[in-house]
Specification:
The complex is a heterodimer of chains A (354) and B (123).
Chain A lengths: L5 H8 L4 H11 L6 H8 L4 H11 L6 H7 L5 H8 L5 H11 L5 H15 L8 H11 L11 H18 L5 E2 L3 E3 L2 E2 L2 E8 L3 E8 L1 H12 L8 H26 L4 E2 L3 E2 L4 E2 L5 E8 L2 E10 L30 H5 L3 H4 L4 H4 L1 H4 L5
Antiparallel strand pairs in A: 1-9, 2-9, 3-8, 4-5, 4-6, 4-7, 5-10, 9-10
Helix pairs in contact in A: 2-7, 3-4, 10-12, 11-12
Chain B lengths: L4 E5 L3 H14 L3 E5 L2 H11 L3 E4 L8 H11 L5 E5 L4 H10 L3 E4 L4 H12 L3
Parallel strand pairs in B: 1-2, 1-3, 3-4, 4-5
Helix pairs in contact in B: 1-5, 2-3, 3-4
Classes of the chains: A alpha+beta (354), B alpha/beta (123).
Chain lengths: 354, 123
């Protein structure tokens, strides 16, 4: 996971112009991942080794993997492994910029390294004991009807614990997840997120706990419930959902639409499907994180994270009408996943020569 | 320091305060605050600020729609998006509507001061 979209990182650095980014995103929808990009992403080959294989390929009519093995850059096992590896879409974006000669392959390799060191967040950057606790908690807890989204839910909750550590503190103890048909609230902020993975998320706590939570979030001592306390809870939730949407876009070209956070004080959260309630104990009180998947999207539209084929990315145009975003916006994804096998061959990977 | 007007639009009072604090410590003091896109458009027309910071996810009218209307009124408007939803589509839409930059939240102070320098240095 990352804290910024790779394209925005390149833009902020001044490596590419806005026009170049928009052009590359247009191409990305139809681009095919190349074996060389997979090899760089896996860390098995350096950019110059990949370059060497591409140059050698101009003299011999052989597949990338075959040549890389002959040249001693990859083992046969590594080639097999790479053929089954997913490529996050931001790597595909980089590949396109190389193909368009906007950056060199070596620059791409360096930029990825810089991007990862500055913006990558590692899954559960917690102390060991706590990491075990959270991992146990997250393992296989989802409801049967949520199974198609299980990978998305896992990524989402992992990011949530990461954000708790980053913005509130790591001194928490998570309790077991409770499944509820409806959730009565105390002081609660909720946010709807729509797309091919739609859900409601909420933070609920006692007002005194909210004051302490906000003090941590703002890094400032607050004493009573006021607009800054409300804003802190809204900000935290919005930041968390925003970062999740950035990652879904960065890795899977999945666009999610966030609604503004809303306050639900002393009411019952109306959810279409059961909610997960995650109680998390801090020294200053217990915060409840609530999460409920919406089943409005049809199953074929689910770009299950970690399982989708990078070649079935959404068109960059597709998300422009965000209000009715998800179900219609992934015309090729529903076909891409089950029928990805023909493209899995190395020939398909390399069908767009340099 | 020459006096310049800066519009800050975010539905979160906290986000507005954080942005204001950074800009204040940099030396600019003249702010106009809006809490949704519609307010931003109206206040922009009234005050014609030298720089505008807009969030995207806001009630009534979102930031990207606000850029469009502000730029229709003033094609030279200097607008920066500061948002947590820096996705492919949001970034692309913001650029196409004419945003000069897109700052991903959470940001470091220097991301904002760099923008102030770029906008006002040598003016």
């Amino acid at each position: 996971m990352h804290t910024q979209f790779f394209g925005n990182f390149l833009l902020n650095k001044g490596v590419i112009t806005p026009e170049q980014l928009i052009d590359a995103l247009k191409v990305q929808a139809y681009a095919h991942k190349k074996f060389g990009t997979l090899a760089i992403h896996s860390g098995y080959m350096s950019a110059s080794e990949v370059e060497d294989v591409y140059i050698t390929q101009t003299h011999f009519d052989k597949h990338f993997g075959e040549l890389a093995t002959e040249l001693g850059y990859l083992s046969a096992d590594q080639v097999d492994e790479l053929l089954d590896t997913q490529l996050p879409d931001y790597m595909l974006l980089g590949q396109i910029l190389v193909e368009q000669k906007i950056i060199t392959r070596i620059e791409f390799e360096n930029l990825i390294a810089e991007y990862q060191s500055a913006y990558e967040i590692y899954d559960l950057d917690l102390i060991d004991e706590q990491k075990d606790m959270v991992e146990k908690l997250l393992a296989n807890f989802y409801l049967p009807e949520d199974a198609p989204y299980s990978q998305n839910i896992l990524s989402y909750l992992t990011l949530f614990f990461n954000n708790l550590v980053r913005f509130i503190g790591e001194d928490f103890t998570p309790l077991n997840i409770i499944v509820l048909p409806e959730v009565p609230t105390n002081f609660c902020v909720s946010q709807d997120v729509e797309g091919s993975f739609s859900f409601l998320s909420a933070l609920d706590m006692e007002p005194e706990t909210a004051v302490a939570f906000a003090s941590r979030y703002m890094n400032e001592e607050l004493t009573e419930m006021d607009e800054y306390v409300r804003a802190s809870m809204e900000d935290f939730l919005n930041l968390h959902n925003g970062l999740f949407s950035v990652n879904m876009s960065n890795d899977f070209s999945m666009e999610l639409h966030l609604h503004p956070p809303v306050i639900n004080e002393h009411t019952t959260l109306a959810t279409e499907s059961p909610s997960y309630l995650l109680p998390i104990i801090y020294s200053f009180g217990t915060i409840n994180f609530i999460f409920s998947v919406k089943m409005s999207a049809s199953l074929e539209d689910i770009p299950a994270a970690g399982e989708s084929d990078t070649q079935g990315a959404d068109g960059p145009e597709s998300g422009s009408d965000r209000s009715e975003a998800a179900p219609e916006e992934t015309p090729d994804r529903s076909e891409a996943a089950p029928e990805e096998t023909p493209d899995r061959s190395e020939a398909a990977l390399e069908e767009m020569p340099d | 320091m020459e006096n310049v007007k800066i519009l800050i639009c975010d539905d979160s009072i906290l986000a507005r305060k954080q942005l204001k604090d950074i800009i204040l410590s940099y030396g600019y003091t003249d702010f106009i605050e809006a809490s949704n896109g519609q307010e931003a458009i109206e206040l922009y027309k009234e005050h014609k600020p030298d720089l505008a910071f807009l969030d995207i996810v806001m009630p009534i009218k979102d930031g990207v729609e606000a850029i469009k209307e502000i730029r229709a009124f003033d094609p030279k408007a200097y607008i920066i998006i500061v948002s947590s939803v820096g996705t492919q589509t949001q970034l692309k839409n913001a650029i196409l509507e004419g945003a000069k930059d897109f700052v991903q939240k959470p940001y470091v102070d220097s991301a904002i001061t760099e923008i102030l320098k770029r906008r006002f240095e040598g003016r």
